[in-house]
Amino acid sequence: MRTVEELWDIRRVSQYLGIKRSTLYAMIERKEIPHYRIGRLARFRQAEIDAWLLTKKRKTEKAIRMTRPAGSFSSPVF
User: Fold this and answer.
1) Residue 14: which residues within 8 A CB-CB, separation 6 or more?
2) Distance CA 26, CA 36 (A)
3) What is the pLDDT of residues 26-75, one digit of tens each?
4) Are 63 and 26 within 8 A, CB to CB?
5) Which neighbouring-strand residues pair with 42?
6) What's the distance, Cα to Cα, between the start and end of the chain in Å?
7) If you compute the radius of gyration of the chain from its CA atoms, what whole number of angstroms results?
8) Whether 5 contacts 47, CB under 8 Å
C-alpha cells in the first residue's frame, strides 16, 4: 500500500528554512522553490525541499582549492 507524504504549509517551510514567510512567498512568486498550488494555497514536500537545498550548497574556499589542480590557484594581486 502506498503511503501519502505529508504536505507542508508556508509556516512550516519558513520555519524549516529559517526564513520569513514574506521571503518564501517571494520565492514562490519567482518560481525559485519547488511547490504545489492547491487552489490559492502553496504546499511543499519535504523531500523536494531537501533536494532543492542541496542544489543551493556552496563550496568553501578550502574545498575549491582542493578541487583545483596543483599550482592553478593564484592569490589576488593588490
Assistant:
1) 20, 21, 23, 24
2) 15
3) 999 999 999 999 999 999 999 999 999 999 888 777 766 776 665 555 55
4) no
5) 37
6) 65
7) 19
8) yes
